[in-house]
Automatic annotation (TrEMBL):
The keyword Signal applies. Keywords: Signal. It comes from Gaetbulibacter aquiaggeris. InterPro entries: BBP2. The lineage of its organism: Bacteria, Pseudomonadati, Bacteroidota, Flavobacteriia, Flavobacteriales. SUPFAM superfamilies: Porins (SSF56935). This is Porin. Residues 1-18 form the signal peptide.
Length: 342
């Protein structure tokens, strides 16, 4: 009996030691996402759909009570490999995948779909479809302070499909290089041409370059914590189509101030210029420009964020309709958005 007890105790100790020495890898599967809806009204222009006038930007432009999107993100994170499947449903999601060559009009709901391999502590390879690395704003409203989006974001790329490599060069310095299909052609390569991109990051400031078969873009994105309560975001970009086909350039500042843990207020002040007749502002006049000021409040209640927003777009030429359906240079509007994240 003593031998049996002794052997049993030895086996228990051996198993316990083995478990301590060789822990089982923890595999993390997560499901997250958001939904958003909003109310929008013009303050100095018609509010019926037949005579609807709006800023020349993406998202949050529908009249009255309107839907954004449902965003569901499934992800798996292993020690070395993982994936992200980011699905979108609703008007904002459809607009985000507008250039999918085959399936955007017939049910494509993929915003991002990629797998990655942590080759080492300092190198990660990613292949698939991923949102763009350029710009200050993103597709998901959870990632933006302002609910409506800027001209710079709306006319830069949304997504890429390809292969990229991320390098951690030091605690402060990072580098990304990638080869991709034509920008926003997310499902396959319809042209046989490829784009090349790079991002150099230093202490939260990023210089981005994208060389596409049809255009070239350089972009700076960054920001600074001026104090514990005050943050200043910065974005600037230059975009040029090939063969002197026009383009755009501009800059935006994003000062944000936290009045409490639950409430913040922020301003986006953007100056955007069309080079030639690019068509972004909607004036039909070469070299038009627009100054857009967007004041947004952000109130957080658990997982729900409420965002009231006032926006003024002031163009250099007539770009909007007034209440008498005549042309005007300025448009003021109000948005109230509700965003729930999980």
């Amino acid at each position: 009996m003593k031998k049996i007890i002794t052997i049993s105790m030895f086996l228990v100790a051996l198993v316990s030691f083995a478990q301590e020495e060789a822990p089982v890898e923890e595999k993390k599967f997560t499901l997250s996402g958001s939904i958003d809806a909003y109310y929008r009204a013009n303050l100095n222009a018609p509010n019926d759909a037949d005579n609807w006038t709006k800023p020349g930007t993406s998202f949050a432009n529908l009249p009255g009570f309107a839907l954004g999107m449902a965003n569901v993100v499934a992800s798996y994170e292993g020690e070395k490999v993982g994936f992200v499947a980011d699905l979108v449903f609703g008007p904002r999601g459809t607009d985000a995948i507008f250039a999918s060559p085959m399936y955007s009009a017939t049910g494509n709901i993929v915003n991002q779909l990629y797998a990655y391999w942590n080759v080492s502590d300092n190198v990660t390879l990613t292949m698939g479809n991923f949102n763009t690395f350029l710009g200050y704003e993103v597709i998901s409203p959870v990632g933006n302070f302002n609910y409506s989006t800027s001209y710079l974001f709306s006319y830069g790329p949304f997504s890429h499909t390809g292969l990229k490599a991320d390098f951690t060069l030091s605690d402060d310095l990072s580098l990304m290089v990638g080869v991709m299909n034509d920008t926003d052609a997310t499902e396959f390569n319809p042209t046989g041409d490829y784009a090349f991109g790079a991002q150099l990051g230093y202490k939260g400031q990023f210089l981005n370059v994208l060389v596409d078969p049809s255009f070239f873009e350089i972009d700076f994105t960054g920001g600074f914590d001026v104090s514990d309560k005050f943050y200043l975001g910065i974005n600037g970009a230059y975009y040029s189509l090939e063969d002197d086909g026009g383009g755009f350039y501009g800059a935006a500042l994003y000062p944000q101030f936290a009045t409490s843990d639950a409430f913040k207020i922020g301003l986006r002040a953007e100056y955007f210029v069309e080079d030639g007749i690019f068509g972004a502002i909607g004036t039909g006049v070469a070299d038009s420009s627009v100054f857009a000021a967007t004041l947004t409040g952000s109130y957080v209640i658990d997982n729900l964020t409420i965002k009231p927003e006032l926006r003024l777009d002031n163009a250099s030429d007539n770009a909007f309709l007034d209440n008498d359906l005549g042309p005007q240079k300025s448009l003021s509007s109000f948005v109230l958005a509700a965003i729930y994240s999980f």
